[in-house]
Amino acid sequence: MIEALSIEALSSLFPPVHPALPLLVGGLLAAVARGRLLPVVAVAAPAFGLLNAVQLSAGDGATWTLAGYQLEILRADKLSLLFGYLFHLAALLAAIYSLHVRDRVQQVTGLLYAGSAIGAVFAGDLVVLFVFWELLAVTSVFQIWARRTPESLRAGQRYLLVHVSSGLLLMAGATLRLHETGSLRFERMELDGVASLLILVAFGIKCAFPLVHTWLTDAYPEGTVTGSVFLATFSTKTAVYALARGFAGTEQLIWIGAIMTAFPIFYAVIENDLRRVLSYSLINQLGFMVVGVGIGTELALNGTVSHAFAHVLYKGLLFMSMGAVLLRTGRIEGSELGGLYKTMPWTAAFCMIGAASISAFPLFSGFVSKSMILSAAAHEGQVVVWLTLLFASAGVFHHSGIKIPFFAFYAHDSGLRPKEAPPNMLIAMGASAALCIAIGCLPAALYRLLPYEVLYQPYTASHVLEQVQLLFFSALAFTWLNLAGIYPPELRSVNLDADWVPRRLVPAALGPPLRGLAAAWRIAIGGVRSGIEALVRRAKWMHSPTGRFGEPWQAGETAFWAALLFAALVLFAFWERGA
Amino acid sequence: MSRPSAGRGKRHVWDDPQNVRRLIVFVFAACAVVALLDLAVHRHSPFEHGELALEGTWFFYAWYGFVSCVGLVLAAKLLRRLVMREPEYYRPPGEEPEAAERSPEGDP
Questions:
Q1: What interface predicted TM-score (ipTM) does this complex get?
Q2: Contact A270 B84 (CB under 8 A)
Q3: Does A183 touch chain B (CB under 8 A)?
């Protein structure tokens, strides 16, 4: 498998293996490891995986022959390597964050989930991608089910249904593509037929495109405290990678992405569950990346990839801080929280660093990545898209940058005085926060890893001033709306979204005819069943001691029936010969 | 829910209304300063062919940020009238609220 790997890599610390293996094997080891070893395996697997991944270099590859087919199980280039580093880093941070968890299901599936995402980004063909795509679905759902509540069970079932369907569409598209082009290689595709359309829809479902986005806002807030940190990292960013690999420069994605940046922020403003607010804001951030893929220029793709990198760290940090609040208070609704900075100052501070990063404040990570996508849109003369992205940038500061820390840690004093988050959570949040600041202050290190040469300069006086003006006046709007009593209060509620259609409208519309059909089926099945039962009863009776075949027969009667049967046979034989 | 006495009696920074007022004044003052900087800093448009002349006008980013957020909140309030339902809307009949939602998970 690894003979094709570079000689430089072979000469380093240890022979490199396929980058998905450390985490997948780690997951299997975690399944059998004894109690005390479990946390060691959970942290060692991504750490070892990261050491392994940095030994790979662009151009490395490996194939595996299975039943006569050559599968490209490893393709390393700058795009896959960057996502590979990112996923290892995120898995390591999430593993540290989860160290206190004593639930083998979460530890095992967390590692397998991360390994699947890494396998997917290094997949060189559509079959290998499909395998890891489905593994992602199956392993990730346990991060939801492990909460072990009726709602998490139902949300997990809906999540799994959507994600497995996405995989099946990918398989169907890959099969058609093989038929059309004779190749299964995963490379840039034109949107010119059913095959590529099916593949795009498969990617789009996992990327939470509008109208198929509700699996995300439905399931992520139902995940466990630590599970949602894993979930926020891998699935959607694997989809962003797949879009960047397969559909760069597909113009339709510009508009899809622009819609994704805008519509979720309206929901985020009125949503009470703060992890659901983060889920809506996650779609908003994915929108920026999808726009970058759609524009498809070197600057735009660099922007998408760097934004995915920054996003995983700050979004993970925000989910971590809300997870710490949920762990310590048992609450996550904005209406129930407030004033937690008094006893959770570190968590509050880390949350605000995540908030500053997602808001793209200068010196924080979002600033050096998101601005590339906006600049790329402007360079292409996309006025409406640029104005939408600018609106979404102001909006994300409003709901993620201010609302999340404000309602959780400040606002009114809820009277809750929880303990500070456990040390392992603080370490993971601290490391994530440090990375957010490091990327924001020293973007050159990240820029060097990007697929194309970076000529972009984020820190110009003009750009810094524009961004600061946008954000400060967004803050002014928040302040004024609160002082004037216009800002909508946090209310315990459910907000209907596109999933109302499959969860309420379809069952309501199809309910009566389906119930009628079910009743008719029950009657038909009941009739057949009672007929068979009557036949069996009759046969049993016939063979019982009092039945016709069970009762003792007289010798003469037996001889009569035997002779009659013999005569019938003889007649039949003659008739048969005559015929 | 852990409600230890630590921090209950202590007066914290935002318990003092004076500090809250100071923060609000700071926000207003900072906005005034960054807006006025528009007059001092020469801005470069990202639109290379001048497709959006409005972007080059004074205070564009300031008013766009403010109007966006006010518009966002007003529109969201309208959306709430349309889509908000009681928290039990999707809960199957007869099912109680989950205990896990009301009590913190076991501390490590």
A1: 0.86
A2: yes
A3: no
